[in-house]
Amino acid sequence: MKVVLDELGTVTPTDTVTIMPQISGYLTKVGFKQGQMVQKGQFLAQIDPRTYEIQLAQYQAALAKDIASLAQARSDLARYRKLAAQDSISAQTVSDQEFTVAQDAAAVKGDRANIDSAKLDLVYCHITSPVTGRIGLRLVDPGNYITSSSSTGIAVVTTTNPTTVIFSVAQQNLTPVLEQIEAGKTLTASAYGSDDVTKLEEGTLTAVDNQVNTSTGMVKLRADFPNRDNKLFPNQFVNVHLLVKTLENATLVPSPAVQEGAPGTYVYVLQPDDKVKVQPVIMGPTDGINTVITKGLKPGEVVVVDGVDRLADGSKVMVTGRETVTTNGTQETLTPVASSHKGQNTKAGP
Questions:
Q1: pLDDT 10s digits, 247-262
Q2: Range of the domain at 182
Q3: Which helix (H) or strand (E) holds 286?
């Protein structure tokens, strides 16, 4: 029997990037269609570069001026040193000129840094996509003045291939999952549509959160999906079926046979004298159709699956019909029993 956890999950892109301007200026051009797939490095938008081109020209002019000043200062320093060697000028004059050379050299470095900054601003005028994915609706129209402090951005790009699904499991179901992970097993996760029937994609469990949510008692898990056909859409709700393990040689009974009451969890077992007996059992996993019984039943014992609400310990029953059940994947045709209580029965199967 397959042990599967059925949970509700949310499709979460591996990357969600808001395209933000890094400089201020007028948006002159948009190079994408809303909702299209874009590639990393693809042109998306253009900011008017003329202001930054003028600024670059000013910095380049300042650099040329400061380079000339530095050359003159160095020439004067060389001449002053010769004169100082002849005791023709004071040592103070030479020292002052050395400081002038240092100041001019620093000015040249500052000009070059300003030029690099201006060139970078020109690069920022040409906005490209940092990731491959699907771009959303345009948030700013051409002609608007945008700033680097804007929180809106130009558009949002989300990666779709591959993608992830985030879902939560109850803390009591976490131990079997962790045991499989510690054993090096790869757990398969299947994503289904809202009808829980249409299978969208199959992936693998890749991460478990490091803490339990104290408000809900749930733990977040993440599964990765190739999403080659783009069936999983960002922020879409999906039903996740996580296959934890497959139980071999398990004792199964139809889930309706398992009852809860004063004795705890129990089933009605048919005795050789056609009377039923209340048999306490310990339940294992269930898939909604069959339930694993870990203790209390032996394979081949017959249990009541219908009409149990009218039975009591020691009630007499008789056979009324036939029923085909599945026990651990093997079909068996059984002869149910009934009396005035009309209780249908089936065998517990290995």
A1: 777 788 888 888 888 8
A2: 2-14+159-246
A3: strand 282-286
